[in-house]
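Lab notebook page, bench 4
Experiment: in silico fold of construct C2
Operator: M.H.
Input chain length: 165 residues
Purpose: comparison with the prior construct
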Amino acid sequence: MATPDFITALREDIGHKELLLPSVRAAVIRRRDADGSALDAPEVLLVRRSDNGAWMITSGILDPGEEPAAGAVREVHEETGTVVRPVRIAGVAATRLIEYPNGDRCRYVDTVFEMEWMSGEPLVNDDESTDVGWFPVDGLPEPLSPGHRESLEWALDAGAAAKWR
């Protein structure tokens, strides 16, 4: 996974100390096909990570000053080539402490969005993933990252108030 330049610069000053980073998770849900016809059942867009092979919803770190909804739209487009729009905040949660192989430590505070697919067929659009595709809600691939499963459940609870742990 590519480390944003601003984090690389911070690491020059603070070394491997723990960072708390704002991030987004974008649960893209397709309820209609390209011609506008309703699907029998909703589908979700998932990417398969290149570093560990797990399936997950699109996620990423916000750029300095970036609004969370705009960041979620950007991340989905960067990773899958699709165009989406935010529907609502489905939840907010912090991750456990993550320590990377180089010793960097961080936690992410994820704003989870329910996103509506607008256009574009998914494709692997960067080096962060090896596969991308639509999956029926009752046929999700494994392994599916547990935290992302929870985020997806929150997003699929259409119209519900935002959730947290």
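Observations: The CA atoms of residues 19 and 56 lie 22 Å apart. The chain is about 20% helix and 45% strand.
Next step: discuss at group meeting.
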